[in-house]
Amino acid sequence: MNLLVVEDERTIANQLKQLLEKERYRCDVSYTYHDATKLIDEKRYDLILLDWNLPDGDGLTLLSLLRKEGIATPVLMLSANTEIDDRVKVLDAGGDDYLCKPYSNIELLARIRALLRRETPQKNTILTCAGLKLDTSSREVSVDGKPIKLSLSEFDLLEILLQNKNIVLTRYQLNEHLSQDYNSLKFSNIVDVHIKNLRKKIGLDDCITTVRGVGYSIKD
Which of 14, 17, 39, 80 is the 20 to 30 A CA-CA neighbour of 102? Predict the structure, then answer.
């Protein structure tokens, strides 16, 4: 998958590039509006991560230009703007998703995977493992066909584990996904509490595996 990062803060842009390449995406970086338009003219991208504020223009204008030119590449807008009106502007301009800064890497990667799945014939809102089924659209969960009720945090935790099957996610990563209180992430045991509750409700032996000293994983 070819991704384009359009971000004027070079440190952030390079960190994003390293993160994405670690996940085995091919990634180009542009620091300006002008350079981004050149790259988009020259290459085909599967996804564009677009910062709102650029030194020689703005991401919203670039997004509108792409859609007017008939370029349907999915766009994930990244911005420090938290106002609802700003999110609406992005969606109205043809954006596919909007993520506020600061964001967790695990959420960013999950959003990227979700957008890329939309572009494949295998698009599916159902995540499964053994007798467990989770529907990301209806937010329903069942085990062997029997519905189970989860809290919002339990659902979000189970969803991220299923989206990363066969990958060990650290307690910090999972906590980062659930909480915006970054100062308390290191000391919180909330993930362990939710995992314990999930295991009780799901009732499947070894569905969620503990990797001692690291975190948790769901395996096929």
Answer: 39
